[in-house]
Amino acid sequence: MSKQPRIAVVGAGLGGAAAAALLLKAGYNAHVYEQAPSFSRLGAGIHVGPNVMKVLRRVGIADELNAQGSHPDFWHSRHWQTGDLLAQIPLGDFAVKEYGESYLTVHRGDFHKLMIEALPDGALTYGKLLVAIEDKGDAVHMRFADGTTAQADLVIGADGVNSRIREELLGPEPPKYAGYLAHRAVFPTPAAKSGMLPFDPCVKWWSDDRHMMVYFVTGRQNEIYYVTGVPVVEWDLKNSWLPSSKEEMRETFSGWHPTVQALIDGTVEVTKWSLLERDPLPLWSRGRMVLLGDACHPMKPHMAQGAGMAIEDAAMLVRCLDEVGAHNHEQAYALYAANRVERTSKVQRVSHDNTWLRTNEDPAWCFGYDVFNVPLVDPGKAA
Predict the structure, then answer these.
(1) In terms of Cα–Cα distance, which of 178, 164, 173 is closest to 129?
(2) CA angle 111, 129, 7 (to 5 degrees)
(3) Among 100, 127, 143, 227, which has the highest number of CB atoms less than 10 A from its own CB?
(4) Is the residue at 224 inside a domain?
(5) Distance CA 167, CA 308 (A)
(6) Is 215 a catalytic residue?
(7) Which pTM does this prediction carry?
(8) Pair 127, 148: CB distance under 8 Å
(9) Is position 226 annotated as part of the catalytic site?
């Protein structure tokens, strides 16, 4: 392998884009292959914690993201019926001081656009759905649905929960339906109504068996987003999402606080999505191929850290390639997994349990993490 190995990143989501951006900034020869025909502003919100902002600072988009996003002073948890506070976790200036970067909420599409724009011209090719991949020993051969082929020395599978590369490493196995649906809607912030509370910039409404997370996705607070977690016993995995409706939302959240009802009344369009998980994988890499993000640890969104873990993965993978050299890729991959499995498994577990910040707990273990400076664990000593 040359000093400039050809690194293919399969998938231009937030994790894949972060990996490519960091690789290119570090001087690697990287290219991204994305199955979508073009970029689109997908309608969802996203939390970006200080642990993620530290990576985005290196990517070069932290200032612009800070300018676009909403900066809540607190994460509020509220009782579904009374609106009483269950928890109030300080963010805002506290996050910057204690964790080293800001905590913000933003439209996922706006965030993703900044990530894509951070890539140099020519570093990303759209319309490349991977249908076959084979590690030939000296190189990895890829074939795409459009009939084209490509080769690379190393391949990073950032291709999501239904990863073709994960399937190549471990065989076909569908992800597990987690037993919950998520309703998602982005719409103009409704006017205040009698009997409701002011819209908190970041709030999670909790009952015993379901919740609704609500936050602004712009700094002007003129656009608001909610995402739910609702138990539904069965779901056809052929459908990743389906349309929902105000009527379904009213039925699902009947009796909830007037503030929640005002959000449902203001909803323009709402969809419902199956929440998928996998058990921790027995391996994250083999030969020249390695996984990151949802390809190896998909999780419920209940900690708002799914994309964050993918972005941290990307940063740690590049750090490990730098540490031992890309020519020692199997050693680098082993170092990467040793330094990510424990953390991502913990986040998977807490996300599954859906307890995150329901009460006044200390989130420093998550938000204060610095992927660039955490001491590296030797693969031989990892649990």
Answers:
(1) 164
(2) 70
(3) 227
(4) no
(5) 23
(6) yes
(7) 0.96
(8) no
(9) no
Alpha helix positions (H), the chain: 14-25, 50-59, 62-68, 92-99, 108-117, 164-170, 246-252, 258-266, 306-324, 329-338, 341-353, 364-367
**Tokens 């884009």 appear where?**
17
* Mode of pairing for the β-strands spanning 149-152 and 85-90: unpaired
Residue 220 in domain: no
- pLDDT by residue for the chain (383 residues), tens digit each? 445 899 999 999 999 999 999 999 999 999 999 999 999 887 799 999 999 999 999 999 999 999 999 999 999 999 999 999 999 999 999 999 999 999 999 999 999 999 999 999 999 999 999 999 999 999 999 999 999 999 999 999 999 999 999 999 999 998 999 999 999 999 999 998 889 999 999 999 999 999 999 999 999 999 999 999 999 998 998 888 999 999 999 999 999 999 999 999 999 999 999 999 988 899 999 999 999 999 999 999 999 999 999 999 999 999 999 999 999 999 999 999 999 999 999 999 999 999 999 999 999 999 999 999 999 999 976 54
Confirm whether 239 is domain-assigned. Answer: no
Which one of the listed residues 215, 226, 333, 336 is annotated catalytic?
215
Determine, yes or no, domain membership for 335: yes
Torsion angle in degrees (nearest 10) through CA of 81, 82, 85, 87: -20
CATH number at residue 335: 3.50.50.60
Q: Is the dihedral of CA 320, 324, 328, 331 positive or negative?
A: negative
User: Into how many domains does the chain fold?
Assistant: 1
Query: Read out DSSP for 339-355?
Result: TTHHHHHHHHHHHHHT-
Which residues constitute the domain of residue 124? 6-174+278-381
